[in-house]
Amino acid sequence: MGSTSEVNRRDLVKRAAALGILAVPAMGALSSCATGGGGGSDDGTRNKGATSARNPLGVKNGAPLEAFIFKGGLGDQYAKDAEADYNKTYGITVKHTGTQQVGPKLQPRFAGGNPPDLIDNSGADHLDMNKLSAQGQLQDLTPLLDAPSMDDPKKKVRDTLYPSTIEKGKHKDTFDVFYYAFTVYGTWYSDKLLKDKGWTYPTSFDDMIKLCAEIKKAGIAPWTYPGKYPYYVHFNIFAQIAKIGGLDKWIAIDNLEPNAWTSNDAVKQVIGHYEELAAKGCFLEGSQGLTHIQAQTAWTRGKAAFIPNGSWVENEAAPTTPADFGMAVGPLFDGGSGDKMPHGTLRAEPSEPFIVAKGGKNPIGGMELLRILLSKKHAQNFATKVKSLTSVQGATDGMQLSPGLSSAAKAVKAGGRNLLMIQLQEWYPKLTDEKLGGLTSQLLTGDMKAADWIKKAQQYADETAKDSSVTKFHRGS
Predict the structure, then answer these.
(1) pTM
(2) 15: cis peptide before it, omega within 30°?
(3) Mean pLDDT over residues 27-32, rounded?
(4) What does the pLDDT read at residue 44?
(5) Could you give the count of Cα atoms lying within 13 Å of 116 in the half-sphere of its Cβ?
(6) Integer angstrom CA distances of residue 80 from 70, 186, 231, 385
(7) Which of 194, 356, 358, 360 could staple 199 via S-S, CB 3.0–4.6 A?
């Protein structure tokens, strides 16, 4: 998920993504609050009207609806456009709030039992969805999945989505988070720069090391990164480990299994590669002190060739990106002949989490607004306005896409079934963004060896696994 300032963004992640998961607001006040709010039943069906072919969820005409949308790098106009269609159909004006402080503004409202209906729960100051789900405060969105799609009544909404959208949105067996965007994470670069210099995007780690030497000779830094938010580098590191070592071993890491970091040879290879990049001076000097915007600006101005990021970067970096920059993203690098997944493997996954509050006044309307957002019309509008894919498969087919979005769409198509989804950053942000982020900061400045990074990573994962205050999740193979 993108934003205008890192204090106000997550992906996924990005996320996530991608993709996104910085400081999670304390939710202690929620632990004792009631699920309800807005009157009526507490099963999420208040203000339910009669169902019909045009109104399969049973939205009550004229019932008020409130939407809280994260207004970061993606803006909120795309949501306003969908709300306009909702208004015409159901005879109201959606109460819309665009904000970069979702958690601080909504935590008291959840505690007071009067949350808004639809929430784009993104940004650094987001609500803790894990706790909200455990407390039964989120609407089960299965009725939305089983409703007919806006474009083809013969197709259910679930049949129009990337399958990982449903997998990622589940807390245990309940689907209560809808990740609307589809973020491509990876190594971003200027196609023009590479072509002008006669360089080829590297296929392997070895190729990258060789190319870095050539880039340095040209007076350009091979890499930059937002050192103030080093979890951006994890977008690449985590997926690279899964690509080389295999998804099953990455799932062991997602599941906080003992020795999952220390027993995985792919971890040693990937972290060792970043240690080598640091030792050979491959990072732009001063990167450790940069925000994401500063790092992106250095990159778009040609001071560095590569940057780890998510596909929101095209929209977020637009103010400083030259018209002929040719923004592009490449697949994960090969580690060697023993890689468990083929070349072309990519981390691409649902991002930008939307939730419907069960205690809202009109949760049925919240689901219907999501159904409108998932129409081809609004998926294409999203792509046009914010240069990002959505979780609707094939929605951008035939569209004239911006360079970065076009590159991302081609990479997803080339990846085929080899699209990775990483849950660790979503499930355990304190572990990944704070604790592992601190380790990565030291690794990239050359102040920590790979072996020490791995040892400490396992220690922190074990501590998280044993911490009874942290909600645990389990991912199947």
Answers:
(1) 0.82
(2) yes
(3) 31
(4) 64
(5) 23
(6) 12, 30, 31, 12
(7) 194
Structure token pair of residue 287 = 């990167």
Q: Is the predicted pLDDT of residue 8 greater than 60, yes or no? A: no
Q: What is the mean pLDDT of the chain?
A: 90
Q: Provide mean pLDDT across the span 419-447.
A: 95
Q: Rounded to an integer, what distance in angstroms lies between the CA atom of residue 44 and that of residue 138?
A: 9
Which one, of 332, 226, 342, lies nearest residue 287 by Cα?
226
| pLDDT digits 0-9 by tens, 327-354 | 999 999 999 999 999 999 999 999 899 9
* Half-sphere CA count of 346, side-chain side, radius 13 A: 29
Closest CA relative to residue 76, chosen from 98, 95, 106: 98
